Amino acid sequence: MAYISEYHPGAIFVTIQAREEDPEDFYARTFAPYFGGDEDPACGSAHTLLTPYWTKRLGKDGQALHTRHLSARGGKLKVLWD
What we know:
Blueprint: H1 2-7, E1 12-17, E2 26-32, E3 37-40, H2 47-58, E4 65-69, E5 75-79
Parallel strand pairs: 2-4
Antiparallel strand pairs: 1-2, 2-3, 4-5
GO molecular function: isomerase activity
Keywords: Isomerase
Family: Belongs to the PhzF family.
Protein backbone atom coordinates (compact mmCIF):
# COMPACT_ATOMS: atom_id res chain seq x y z
CA MET A 1 0.00 0.00 0.00
CA ALA A 2 2.90 2.37 0.63
CA TYR A 3 3.92 2.16 -3.03
CA ILE A 4 0.38 2.86 -4.22
CA SER A 5 0.07 5.78 -1.80
CA GLU A 6 3.34 7.31 -2.94
CA TYR A 7 3.01 6.84 -6.69
CA HIS A 8 -0.73 6.88 -7.31
CA PRO A 9 -2.50 9.94 -5.86
CA GLY A 10 -6.02 8.62 -6.20
CA ALA A 11 -8.08 5.49 -5.93
CA ILE A 12 -7.65 2.20 -7.75
CA PHE A 13 -10.75 0.22 -8.70
CA VAL A 14 -10.43 -3.50 -9.42
CA THR A 15 -13.41 -5.25 -10.99
CA ILE A 16 -14.26 -8.60 -12.54
CA GLN A 17 -17.35 -10.13 -14.09
CA ALA A 18 -19.15 -12.71 -11.95
CA ARG A 19 -19.61 -16.27 -13.12
CA GLU A 20 -22.93 -17.15 -14.75
CA GLU A 21 -24.00 -19.23 -11.76
CA ASP A 22 -23.30 -16.40 -9.27
CA PRO A 23 -26.14 -14.16 -8.04
CA GLU A 24 -24.00 -11.06 -8.64
CA ASP A 25 -23.25 -9.50 -12.01
CA PHE A 26 -19.78 -8.24 -11.07
CA TYR A 27 -17.37 -7.87 -8.17
CA ALA A 28 -15.21 -4.94 -7.12
CA ARG A 29 -12.54 -3.75 -4.70
CA THR A 30 -11.39 -0.18 -4.08
CA PHE A 31 -7.94 0.77 -2.81
CA ALA A 32 -7.25 4.37 -1.77
CA PRO A 33 -4.32 4.64 0.68
CA TYR A 34 -3.58 8.15 -0.60
CA PHE A 35 -6.84 9.25 1.04
CA GLY A 36 -6.01 7.72 4.42
CA GLY A 37 -7.48 4.22 4.24
CA ASP A 38 -5.99 1.20 2.55
CA GLU A 39 -9.28 -0.16 1.24
CA ASP A 40 -12.84 1.12 1.11
CA PRO A 41 -15.05 -1.72 2.37
CA ALA A 42 -17.96 -0.91 0.01
CA CYS A 43 -17.32 2.11 -2.21
CA GLY A 44 -20.47 3.73 -3.56
CA SER A 45 -18.57 6.36 -5.55
CA ALA A 46 -16.61 3.67 -7.41
CA HIS A 47 -19.89 2.30 -8.67
CA THR A 48 -20.75 5.60 -10.36
CA LEU A 49 -17.97 4.60 -12.79
CA LEU A 50 -18.34 0.83 -12.70
CA THR A 51 -22.12 0.69 -13.21
CA PRO A 52 -22.24 2.27 -16.69
CA TYR A 53 -19.30 0.11 -17.78
CA TRP A 54 -20.90 -3.15 -16.62
CA THR A 55 -24.38 -2.15 -17.83
CA LYS A 56 -23.03 -1.78 -21.36
CA ARG A 57 -20.67 -4.74 -21.17
CA LEU A 58 -23.40 -7.10 -19.92
CA GLY A 59 -26.09 -5.66 -22.22
CA LYS A 60 -28.40 -4.89 -19.30
CA ASP A 61 -29.71 -1.43 -20.21
CA GLY A 62 -32.53 -0.41 -17.87
CA GLN A 63 -31.89 -3.35 -15.54
CA ALA A 64 -30.52 -3.29 -12.01
CA LEU A 65 -27.16 -4.96 -11.48
CA HIS A 66 -26.11 -6.82 -8.36
CA THR A 67 -22.55 -6.43 -7.16
CA ARG A 68 -20.47 -7.36 -4.17
CA HIS A 69 -17.41 -5.62 -2.77
CA LEU A 70 -14.84 -8.27 -1.89
CA SER A 71 -13.16 -6.38 0.94
CA ALA A 72 -12.68 -7.95 4.38
CA ARG A 73 -15.93 -6.37 5.62
CA GLY A 74 -17.66 -6.78 2.29
CA GLY A 75 -20.74 -5.11 0.97
CA LYS A 76 -23.56 -5.89 -1.44
CA LEU A 77 -24.97 -3.24 -3.74
CA LYS A 78 -27.86 -3.07 -6.19
CA VAL A 79 -27.14 -0.45 -8.85
CA LEU A 80 -28.94 0.94 -11.88
CA TRP A 81 -27.60 3.14 -14.66
CA ASP A 82 -30.54 5.13 -15.96
